[in-house]
Amino acid sequence: MKTIQILYIFIAVILFLSCKEDTERISNTSDYDSYLQIDHQDKILKAEHELAFWNARIKEDSTQITSMGPVAQAYTDLFQATGEISYLKKAEQILQKSADIAAFKRENYWLALAQNYITQHRFIDAKAAAKIARAINDNKAATMVLFDVSMELGEYNNASKHLEKIADHNDFNFLIRLAKWSDFKGNLDLTIKYMEKATKLVEQKNNKALMLWSYTNLGDYYGHAGRIKDSYQHYLKALEIDPSYTYAKKGIAWIAYSYEKKPQEALRIMDNVIANSKSPDYYLFKAEISEYLADQTQKEDNIKDYKEGVDNPNYGVMYNVHNAILLAEEYKQYDKAMALAEIEINNRPTPQSYDLKAYILYLKGEYQQALNLVNAHVVDKTFEPVANLHIAQIYKVNGLLDKMEVIKEELIESDYELGPITAVKVQNL
Q: Which CATH class is domain 297-428?
């Protein structure tokens, strides 16, 4: 049965590709091959040096509060360089202790802790920490973090109020949040406009760290807009600043896979990324490419590697969405998947969380319940292509074909963002 299913997918992909033969080639291996030779060792050594230096200043049985902030930052840097979750948890422990005992600028430790929680997808905890920081000092920094948390929690009215409070069109931190708000509202042109303005500001100041972040975010947004060449150039700009930056390499891999239909090149890039980072979700990307290649063995191997990676209690809820989809799509374990979806809704009641539950209901065959859920919590509340695909699938099985066709027309424009495998699902609606 699996062999037949793989054959059907392979034929569908070939048919889909027949319409894509004239796709413009964007990437060139000579542009980025040298970056694939760069590992994260320099970053790791630098962070380890900082850690050793500041740890040496923390005397036994002494708080040494001024040293604890840099120690937490060093652990955070190590997490970003390696993807090793234990470093993020160590940073959390240091920040929690610092926030509890600090006598001076205590709000900064609470805000850093809130950002740590956001990375862990512990958004309710992040909101509590940010509110403590605001109670200590109701400043712009606290408002910015509260905006970030409100967006993650689906508290969009609160997010709007926080955004108004920090409005300043000449401020980078405001502009990137205004861009995020515009993206949420479905206005991609405005999103790009504000991100471009924010990027110019940090370029003028030659702030390398913020330039790196800005280039990759612009790369993503350009990709969503179908501006693939601009997307590619901005990932390269990021690699010029940091040749080891895995996020930019993954962005180029996605262009090779989704736009240029060069899956083997995408796999080559991702092998380099995985060699330098332990983030489990990279294996899911490789599994998708393997499915595209109709290589079931490689797909299963990558899923196995993903499952081994996330089998670590330190990850907490970070991979609940990925795990739920995997359980439902690959293993038909709908009850386990649904339990994770309910946790997501409790922790993060966004349209995307409700979409996850509705999609599982759809896969389970509970079509009317899925329809009721998307109508109540997803339709017209998000512009994410994946959520819209799920809505269209649910409309179709419920006989709402006119509504389904409207969404299908919109989704065809998002085939690059969705990827070849998912784009075939759109064609088959």
A: mainly alpha
> What is the domain partition of the chain in residue ranges?
167-278, 297-428
Q: How many helices (H) and strands (E) are present in the chain, helices listed first?
A: 25, 0
Classified as helix, coil or strand, 101 is helix
pTM of the entire predicted model: 0.92
Domains 167-278 and 297-428 in one fold: yes
The dihedral of CA 41, 43, 46, 47: what is its sign? Answer: negative
Instruction: Evaluate whether the domain defined by 167-278 bears CATH number 3.40.50.2000.
Output: no
For residues 298 and 151, what is the distance between their CA atoms, to the nearest angstrom?
A: 37
pLDDT tens sequence for the chain (429 residues):
444 444 444 444 444 444 444 457 899 999 999 999 998 889 999 999 988 888 888 764 455 777 888 999 999 999 999 999 999 999 999 999 999 998 889 999 999 999 999 999 999 999 999 999 999 999 999 999 999 999 999 999 999 999 999 999 999 999 999 999 999 999 999 999 999 999 999 999 999 999 999 999 999 999 999 999 999 999 999 999 999 999 999 999 999 999 999 999 999 999 999 999 989 999 999 999 999 999 999 999 999 999 999 999 999 999 999 999 999 999 999 999 999 999 999 999 999 999 999 999 999 999 999 999 999 999 999 999 999 999 999 999 999 999 999 999 999 999 999 999 999 999 999
